[in-house]
Amino acid sequence: MWPISREDSNYAARLSSELGTYKDCLDVNALPEIFHYWSNRHLAPKFARIGLDHPDELFAKYLHQSAANTGARRASFVSIGAGNCDTEVRVAKRLRARGLDHFEIECLDINPDMLRRGREMAQAEGVASSLTFTAVDFNAWFPARRYDAVMANQSLHHVVNLEGLFDAVLEAIGDGGLFVTSDIIGRNGHLRWPEARAILETFWAELPPGYRYNRLLNRHEEAFMDWDCSVEGFEGIRAQDVLPLLVERFQFDLFAPFANVIDPFIDRAFGHNFDASAPWDRDFIDRVHRRDEEEIQAGRIKPTHMMAVMCAGRPGRSEFLDGLAPRDCIRIAD
Protein backbone atom coordinates (compact mmCIF):
# COMPACT_ATOMS: atom_id res chain seq x y z
CA MET A 1 0.00 0.00 0.00
CA TRP A 2 1.25 3.49 -0.85
CA PRO A 3 1.53 6.20 1.81
CA ILE A 4 -1.37 8.66 1.79
CA SER A 5 -0.05 11.34 4.12
CA ARG A 6 0.04 14.80 2.57
CA GLU A 7 3.30 15.30 4.42
CA ASP A 8 4.91 12.54 2.35
CA SER A 9 6.89 14.34 -0.37
CA ASN A 10 6.08 11.79 -3.10
CA TYR A 11 2.36 11.84 -2.38
CA ALA A 12 2.30 15.62 -2.00
CA ALA A 13 4.00 16.10 -5.38
CA ARG A 14 1.58 13.75 -7.11
CA LEU A 15 -1.37 15.44 -5.44
CA SER A 16 -0.17 18.85 -6.61
CA SER A 17 0.21 17.54 -10.16
CA GLU A 18 -3.27 16.00 -10.11
CA LEU A 19 -4.89 19.18 -8.83
CA GLY A 20 -3.06 21.26 -11.42
CA THR A 21 -3.99 18.96 -14.30
CA TYR A 22 -7.72 19.16 -13.63
CA LYS A 23 -8.03 22.68 -12.18
CA ASP A 24 -9.09 24.16 -15.53
CA CYS A 25 -10.16 20.95 -17.29
CA LEU A 26 -13.70 21.68 -18.44
CA ASP A 27 -14.30 18.35 -20.20
CA VAL A 28 -12.38 15.34 -18.93
CA ASN A 29 -14.29 13.11 -21.35
CA ALA A 30 -13.32 14.90 -24.59
CA LEU A 31 -12.24 12.08 -26.93
CA PRO A 32 -11.36 11.84 -30.64
CA GLU A 33 -14.07 11.19 -33.21
CA ILE A 34 -12.48 7.82 -34.01
CA PHE A 35 -13.20 6.75 -30.42
CA HIS A 36 -16.88 7.49 -30.95
CA TYR A 37 -16.86 5.59 -34.25
CA TRP A 38 -15.39 2.56 -32.46
CA SER A 39 -17.66 2.74 -29.43
CA ASN A 40 -20.85 3.23 -31.46
CA ARG A 41 -20.01 0.49 -33.97
CA HIS A 42 -18.53 -2.11 -31.64
CA LEU A 43 -19.28 -1.39 -27.99
CA ALA A 44 -22.88 -0.27 -28.27
CA PRO A 45 -24.12 -3.65 -29.60
CA LYS A 46 -22.23 -5.49 -26.85
CA PHE A 47 -23.71 -3.35 -24.10
CA ALA A 48 -27.19 -3.54 -25.61
CA ARG A 49 -27.09 -7.27 -24.79
CA ILE A 50 -26.93 -6.39 -21.09
CA GLY A 51 -29.63 -3.73 -21.27
CA LEU A 52 -27.46 -0.61 -21.56
CA ASP A 53 -28.21 1.95 -24.26
CA HIS A 54 -25.52 4.38 -23.06
CA PRO A 55 -22.61 4.29 -20.56
CA ASP A 56 -24.63 6.51 -18.18
CA GLU A 57 -27.38 3.89 -18.14
CA LEU A 58 -25.08 1.56 -16.18
CA PHE A 59 -25.31 3.93 -13.23
CA ALA A 60 -28.94 4.98 -13.68
CA LYS A 61 -30.19 1.42 -14.03
CA TYR A 62 -28.42 -0.02 -11.02
CA LEU A 63 -28.76 2.99 -8.72
CA HIS A 64 -32.49 2.85 -9.41
CA GLN A 65 -32.48 -0.91 -8.78
CA SER A 66 -30.63 -0.48 -5.49
CA ALA A 67 -33.12 2.16 -4.32
CA ALA A 68 -35.97 -0.23 -5.12
CA ASN A 69 -34.23 -3.08 -3.29
CA THR A 70 -33.65 -1.11 -0.09
CA GLY A 71 -37.01 0.66 -0.17
CA ALA A 72 -35.53 3.87 1.18
CA ARG A 73 -37.91 6.84 1.40
CA ARG A 74 -35.13 9.08 0.08
CA ALA A 75 -32.46 7.09 -1.73
CA SER A 76 -28.87 7.96 -0.87
CA PHE A 77 -25.98 7.51 -3.30
CA VAL A 78 -22.34 8.59 -3.28
CA SER A 79 -20.04 9.08 -6.26
CA ILE A 80 -16.30 8.60 -5.72
CA GLY A 81 -14.11 10.88 -7.81
CA ALA A 82 -16.98 12.80 -9.39
CA GLY A 83 -14.75 15.44 -11.00
CA ASN A 84 -16.88 18.01 -12.83
CA CYS A 85 -19.96 15.92 -11.94
CA ASP A 86 -21.19 15.84 -15.54
CA THR A 87 -21.91 12.10 -15.33
CA GLU A 88 -23.72 12.57 -12.01
CA VAL A 89 -25.88 15.35 -13.48
CA ARG A 90 -26.86 13.16 -16.43
CA VAL A 91 -27.51 10.16 -14.16
CA ALA A 92 -29.71 12.32 -11.92
CA LYS A 93 -31.79 13.28 -14.96
CA ARG A 94 -32.07 9.63 -16.00
CA LEU A 95 -33.14 8.64 -12.48
CA ARG A 96 -35.87 11.27 -12.55
CA ALA A 97 -36.99 10.00 -15.95
CA ARG A 98 -37.27 6.54 -14.39
CA GLY A 99 -39.65 7.96 -11.78
CA LEU A 100 -37.23 8.22 -8.86
CA ASP A 101 -38.03 11.63 -7.37
CA HIS A 102 -36.51 11.51 -3.90
CA PHE A 103 -32.79 10.83 -3.96
CA GLU A 104 -29.41 12.41 -3.31
CA ILE A 105 -26.09 11.81 -5.06
CA GLU A 106 -23.20 12.99 -2.89
CA CYS A 107 -20.34 13.92 -5.22
CA LEU A 108 -16.89 13.36 -3.75
CA ASP A 109 -13.74 14.78 -5.30
CA ILE A 110 -10.36 16.03 -4.18
CA ASN A 111 -10.52 19.03 -6.52
CA PRO A 112 -12.72 21.94 -5.31
CA ASP A 113 -12.54 23.67 -8.70
CA MET A 114 -14.15 20.68 -10.38
CA LEU A 115 -16.84 20.44 -7.70
CA ARG A 116 -17.62 24.13 -8.18
CA ARG A 117 -18.18 23.49 -11.88
CA GLY A 118 -20.36 20.52 -10.96
CA ARG A 119 -22.50 22.65 -8.67
CA GLU A 120 -22.98 25.21 -11.43
CA MET A 121 -23.88 22.49 -13.95
CA ALA A 122 -26.40 20.88 -11.58
CA GLN A 123 -28.07 24.26 -11.11
CA ALA A 124 -28.17 24.93 -14.84
CA GLU A 125 -29.61 21.47 -15.60
CA GLY A 126 -32.28 21.67 -12.92
CA VAL A 127 -31.03 18.85 -10.65
CA ALA A 128 -29.34 20.90 -7.93
CA SER A 129 -31.73 19.59 -5.28
CA SER A 130 -30.57 16.03 -6.00
CA LEU A 131 -26.78 16.57 -5.78
CA THR A 132 -24.49 17.53 -2.91
CA PHE A 133 -20.76 18.21 -3.12
CA THR A 134 -17.98 17.18 -0.74
CA ALA A 135 -14.29 18.01 -1.20
CA VAL A 136 -12.32 15.07 0.19
CA ASP A 137 -9.26 12.97 -0.62
CA PHE A 138 -10.90 9.61 -1.30
CA ASN A 139 -7.59 7.88 -0.55
CA ALA A 140 -8.50 8.59 3.08
CA TRP A 141 -12.32 8.70 2.87
CA PHE A 142 -14.51 6.62 5.17
CA PRO A 143 -18.31 6.85 5.14
CA ALA A 144 -20.14 8.37 8.08
CA ARG A 145 -23.36 6.59 7.06
CA ARG A 146 -24.76 3.88 4.80
CA TYR A 147 -25.66 4.44 1.15
CA ASP A 148 -28.02 2.55 -1.13
CA ALA A 149 -25.29 2.50 -3.78
CA VAL A 150 -21.76 3.72 -4.42
CA MET A 151 -20.76 4.71 -7.95
CA ALA A 152 -17.28 5.30 -9.35
CA ASN A 153 -16.86 6.45 -12.94
CA GLN A 154 -13.28 6.33 -14.27
CA SER A 155 -11.85 7.19 -10.85
CA LEU A 156 -10.51 3.96 -9.35
CA HIS A 157 -7.40 4.01 -11.54
CA HIS A 158 -6.45 7.29 -9.81
CA VAL A 159 -6.51 5.75 -6.31
CA VAL A 160 -3.36 4.98 -4.33
CA ASN A 161 -5.05 3.44 -1.29
CA LEU A 162 -7.32 1.00 -3.10
CA GLU A 163 -7.48 -1.37 -0.14
CA GLY A 164 -8.69 1.37 2.17
CA LEU A 165 -11.18 2.72 -0.35
CA PHE A 166 -12.70 -0.69 -1.11
CA ASP A 167 -13.05 -1.40 2.61
CA ALA A 168 -14.82 1.96 2.92
CA VAL A 169 -17.17 1.00 0.08
CA LEU A 170 -17.98 -2.28 1.85
CA GLU A 171 -18.92 -0.29 4.93
CA ALA A 172 -20.94 2.16 2.85
CA ILE A 173 -23.14 -0.42 1.09
CA GLY A 174 -23.47 -3.00 3.86
CA ASP A 175 -25.31 -6.17 2.88
CA GLY A 176 -28.01 -4.50 0.81
CA GLY A 177 -26.36 -1.90 -1.40
CA LEU A 178 -24.52 -1.98 -4.73
CA PHE A 179 -21.13 -0.80 -5.93
CA VAL A 180 -21.34 0.30 -9.58
CA THR A 181 -18.23 1.21 -11.56
CA SER A 182 -16.80 1.76 -15.02
CA ASP A 183 -13.02 1.84 -15.04
CA ILE A 184 -9.61 0.92 -16.43
CA ILE A 185 -8.04 -2.34 -15.28
CA GLY A 186 -4.94 -2.62 -17.48
CA ARG A 187 -1.29 -2.31 -16.55
CA ASN A 188 -0.14 0.45 -14.20
CA GLY A 189 0.44 3.76 -15.96
CA HIS A 190 -1.70 2.44 -18.86
CA LEU A 191 1.32 0.64 -20.29
CA ARG A 192 0.84 -2.44 -22.46
CA TRP A 193 1.73 -5.86 -21.11
CA PRO A 194 4.35 -7.55 -23.39
CA GLU A 195 1.90 -9.92 -25.08
CA ALA A 196 -0.44 -7.05 -25.98
CA ARG A 197 2.38 -4.76 -27.08
CA ALA A 198 3.63 -7.40 -29.53
CA ILE A 199 0.21 -7.39 -31.24
CA LEU A 200 0.01 -3.59 -31.13
CA GLU A 201 3.34 -3.27 -32.88
CA THR A 202 2.14 -5.35 -35.83
CA PHE A 203 -0.67 -2.84 -36.39
CA TRP A 204 1.61 0.12 -35.67
CA ALA A 205 3.76 -0.93 -38.63
CA GLU A 206 0.77 -0.32 -40.92
CA LEU A 207 0.27 3.31 -39.88
CA PRO A 208 1.21 6.14 -42.24
CA PRO A 209 3.81 8.51 -40.69
CA GLY A 210 1.26 11.21 -39.88
CA TYR A 211 -0.70 8.81 -37.70
CA ARG A 212 2.32 8.21 -35.45
CA TYR A 213 2.44 11.70 -33.98
CA ASN A 214 1.74 11.76 -30.23
CA ARG A 215 -0.38 14.86 -29.70
CA LEU A 216 -0.14 14.73 -25.91
CA LEU A 217 3.66 14.46 -25.76
CA ASN A 218 4.30 16.40 -28.99
CA ARG A 219 6.60 13.83 -30.55
CA HIS A 220 6.72 11.55 -33.58
CA GLU A 221 6.94 7.87 -32.66
CA GLU A 222 8.31 5.89 -35.59
CA ALA A 223 8.23 2.89 -33.28
CA PHE A 224 5.55 2.79 -30.61
CA MET A 225 6.97 4.26 -27.39
CA ASP A 226 4.96 3.05 -24.41
CA TRP A 227 4.60 5.90 -21.90
CA ASP A 228 4.01 5.45 -18.17
CA CYS A 229 1.50 8.20 -17.40
CA SER A 230 1.65 7.52 -13.64
CA VAL A 231 5.11 9.09 -13.19
CA GLU A 232 3.80 12.48 -12.06
CA GLY A 233 0.20 12.38 -10.87
CA PHE A 234 -2.23 9.58 -10.06
CA GLU A 235 -3.28 8.57 -13.59
CA GLY A 236 -3.18 4.76 -13.77
CA ILE A 237 -1.19 4.61 -10.53
CA ARG A 238 -2.50 1.15 -9.52
CA ALA A 239 -4.74 0.21 -12.43
CA GLN A 240 -3.57 -3.42 -12.50
CA ASP A 241 -4.55 -3.88 -8.84
CA VAL A 242 -8.14 -2.71 -9.24
CA LEU A 243 -9.68 -5.97 -10.46
CA PRO A 244 -7.76 -8.39 -8.17
CA LEU A 245 -8.74 -6.36 -5.11
CA LEU A 246 -12.37 -6.18 -6.19
CA VAL A 247 -12.46 -9.95 -6.68
CA GLU A 248 -11.09 -10.40 -3.16
CA ARG A 249 -13.77 -8.24 -1.54
CA PHE A 250 -16.97 -8.29 -3.61
CA GLN A 251 -19.41 -10.55 -5.42
CA PHE A 252 -20.37 -9.61 -8.98
CA ASP A 253 -23.90 -9.12 -10.25
CA LEU A 254 -22.56 -7.88 -13.60
CA PHE A 255 -19.13 -7.87 -15.21
CA ALA A 256 -18.56 -6.50 -18.71
CA PRO A 257 -14.87 -6.43 -19.75
CA PHE A 258 -13.59 -5.09 -23.06
CA ALA A 259 -10.71 -3.72 -25.17
CA ASN A 260 -6.92 -3.75 -24.98
CA VAL A 261 -4.79 -3.27 -28.11
CA ILE A 262 -7.28 -0.77 -29.53
CA ASP A 263 -6.62 1.74 -26.73
CA PRO A 264 -3.67 3.76 -28.11
CA PHE A 265 -5.29 4.11 -31.54
CA ILE A 266 -8.46 5.77 -30.19
CA ASP A 267 -7.13 7.76 -27.24
CA ARG A 268 -6.16 11.44 -27.01
CA ALA A 269 -2.52 10.86 -27.95
CA PHE A 270 -3.00 9.28 -31.39
CA GLY A 271 -6.75 9.11 -31.97
CA HIS A 272 -7.00 12.64 -33.35
CA ASN A 273 -4.74 11.56 -36.21
CA PHE A 274 -7.51 9.34 -37.59
CA ASP A 275 -10.37 10.49 -39.80
CA ALA A 276 -13.53 8.78 -38.56
CA SER A 277 -15.17 9.23 -41.98
CA ALA A 278 -12.31 7.73 -44.03
CA PRO A 279 -12.69 4.10 -45.21
CA TRP A 280 -9.06 3.11 -44.51
CA ASP A 281 -9.21 4.50 -40.98
CA ARG A 282 -12.48 2.80 -40.17
CA ASP A 283 -11.31 -0.51 -41.63
CA PHE A 284 -8.11 -0.31 -39.59
CA ILE A 285 -10.03 0.27 -36.35
CA ASP A 286 -12.43 -2.56 -37.21
CA ARG A 287 -9.52 -4.97 -37.72
CA VAL A 288 -7.82 -4.00 -34.47
CA HIS A 289 -11.10 -4.46 -32.62
CA ARG A 290 -11.64 -7.91 -34.12
CA ARG A 291 -8.14 -8.97 -33.11
CA ASP A 292 -8.77 -7.67 -29.59
CA GLU A 293 -11.94 -9.72 -29.33
CA GLU A 294 -10.23 -12.88 -30.59
CA GLU A 295 -7.24 -12.57 -28.26
CA ILE A 296 -9.32 -11.70 -25.18
CA GLN A 297 -11.75 -14.58 -25.79
CA ALA A 298 -8.80 -16.95 -26.18
CA GLY A 299 -7.27 -15.68 -22.93
CA ARG A 300 -4.02 -14.66 -24.60
CA ILE A 301 -4.45 -11.02 -23.54
CA LYS A 302 -6.58 -9.52 -20.77
CA PRO A 303 -9.12 -6.70 -21.10
CA THR A 304 -8.11 -3.22 -20.01
CA HIS A 305 -11.61 -1.87 -19.30
CA MET A 306 -14.65 -3.03 -17.37
CA MET A 307 -18.13 -2.14 -16.30
CA ALA A 308 -19.16 -3.88 -13.09
CA VAL A 309 -21.95 -4.07 -10.53
CA MET A 310 -20.96 -5.60 -7.21
CA CYS A 311 -22.47 -6.50 -3.87
CA ALA A 312 -21.45 -7.93 -0.51
CA GLY A 313 -23.15 -10.22 1.97
CA ARG A 314 -24.90 -12.35 -0.68
CA PRO A 315 -23.97 -14.32 -3.80
CA GLY A 316 -23.68 -12.26 -6.97
CA ARG A 317 -25.95 -12.90 -9.95
CA SER A 318 -22.86 -13.57 -12.08
CA GLU A 319 -23.98 -12.01 -15.36
CA PHE A 320 -20.71 -12.04 -17.32
CA LEU A 321 -20.60 -10.44 -20.78
CA ASP A 322 -19.24 -12.91 -23.36
CA GLY A 323 -18.81 -15.42 -20.53
CA LEU A 324 -15.70 -13.65 -19.20
CA ALA A 325 -15.58 -13.99 -15.41
CA PRO A 326 -13.76 -11.35 -13.33
CA ARG A 327 -11.16 -13.76 -11.96
CA ASP A 328 -10.30 -14.97 -15.47
CA CYS A 329 -9.61 -11.39 -16.61
CA ILE A 330 -6.89 -10.73 -14.05
CA ARG A 331 -3.42 -10.36 -15.57
CA ILE A 332 -0.90 -11.57 -13.00
CA ALA A 333 2.17 -9.30 -12.94
CA ASP A 334 5.44 -10.98 -13.80
Summarize the structure.
This protein has helices spanning 9-23, 33-48, 55-70, 86-97, 112-124, 162-173, 194-204, 239-249, 263-266, 279-298, and strands spanning 75-80, 103-109, 131-135, 149-153, 178-184, 213-214, 219-220, 251-258, 305-311, 319-320.
Q: What's the SSE blueprint?
A:
Elements: H1 9-23, H2 33-48, H3 55-70, E1 75-80, H4 86-97, E2 103-109, H5 112-124, E3 131-135, E4 149-153, H6 162-173, E5 178-184, H7 194-204, E6 213-214, E7 219-220, H8 239-249, E8 251-258, H9 263-266, H10 279-298, E9 305-311, E10 319-320
Parallel strand pairs: 1-2, 1-4, 2-3, 4-5, 8-10
Antiparallel strand pairs: 5-9, 6-7, 8-9
Description:
The chain has one domain: 3-Layer(aba) Sandwich (Rossmann fold). Helices cover 39% and strands 15% of the residues. It contains 10 helices and 10 strands. The protein has helices at 9-23, 33-48, 55-70, 86-97, 112-124, 162-173, 194-204, 239-249, 263-266, 279-298, and strands spanning 75-80, 103-109, 131-135, 149-153, 178-184, 213-214, 219-220, 251-258, 305-311, 319-320. Helix 4 links the parallel strand 1 and strand 2 (103-109). The chain starts with 8 loop residues before the first helix and ends in a 14-residue tail after the last strand.
